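Training component of the fellowship. As part of building independent skills, the fellow (R.M.) carried out the full modelling exercise for a liganded target. The chosen ligand was manganese (II) ion. The inputs are recorded below so that the supervisory panel can assess the work.
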Amino acid sequence: MTSKTNLTINPQRLWDALMETAKFGGTPKGGIKRLTVSDEDKKVRDWFKAECEKLGCKVQVDSVGNMFATRPGKNNALLPIAMGSHLDTQPTGGKFDGVLGVLGALEAMRTLVDMGYETNAPVMIVNWTNEEGSRFAPAMLCSGVYAGVFTPDYAYSRADRDGITLGDELKRIGYLGSEPVGSHKFQAMFELHIEQGPILEAEDKMIGVVTGVQGMRWYEVTVRGQESHTGATPMGLRKNALLASARMIEAIHQVGMAHLPGVASVGLIENRPNSRNVVPGEVFFTVDLRHPDESVLDKMEAEYRAALPKIAAELNVELEEKCIWKSPAVKFAAPLIECVRKGAQQAGYRMREMASGAGHDAAYIARVAPTTMIFVPCLGGISHNEAESTTLEECGAGSQVLLNAVLDYDRALA
Ligand code: HGY
Ligand code: MN
Ligand code: MN
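Fellow's submitted model of the complex:
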């Protein structure tokens, strides 16, 4: 067994794995639609399990479908060092969001095996169920169960817009594991991810040394007016749920503009009955507020909640609103951040410290184990879009720094 400290990953092999798995849910525009615990998700999970077992890893599945692939080390009394992210995607997702973190970890593991390198502690790859929260809200759901934020039953009960539940789907695809959530312990987690924003590319930096994740809150709004005839109902007598929603969506946008670098978005909207000649009677939409500072996020929430009832009263419609998810701002573990910094230096990459605008499983895992993240650039900062793109070199750089950081952390355990 060699114990070289500068093991080199194989970027082409990583790229090939990314392209091979992109076919599970691949879309004509070159993206991926691999909604969590769908048939496509099952295919990539089965692929991932088989590849890890080929490396001699033990693959376990917990009761909300989180997958843990562990390679033994010299001292298996030590808790594993984990590398984790997610394999589920947005409906119009790209090839790299989440996937790079899991396959970049697989490439690091393949390199350890190829080189016969024996780590002190076991090394683990984790695939977290339902990071996106697109099909089943909220996001980061099953890393949240692992961190004790949600119960397994809450996760099982989450239904998609067709009324299908996460629990039913986990059972249907055969990933309702028998092992309790939280029983697969690890002593640290590193998550590799594309930045999903424009900063690294704009500054021509290869590595983001991530220090934390901003606070996030999700809400659900239902506006109820009255369906009526678009031809026979005078403008002044309407209870137009869609008009009210449009003004509310503008007000929400203004809350974001008033608290930069905070963000405020409406992403999902359902208009009923959605008929050309019926004044809309009911509209459902979702709200996503984020800011690095929780006290500012409180202000944004207060302003948003003051604006909507006023608009509802002006237009004589009913308003129902509730917060369905709060993920507070998170700071990552300084010792792990230092491992990433050293790992980037060792590989000779330009880097910069930054916080994450997007949510990640690491945000919840940081509650139960020292955690940090590594970013690489993506083209134009575009993500949650089928055009999401990175290069073989950038993916390789991320996986190399991930391996370097894990080995730096591991050497300190000797
Ligand atoms: O919403 C998020 O930030 C993550 O992509 N799920
Ligand atoms: Mn992601
Ligand atoms: Mn995402």
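The panel noted the following from the submitted structure. The chain has two domains: 11-214+329-413, 215-327. The chain has twelve helices and 16 strands.
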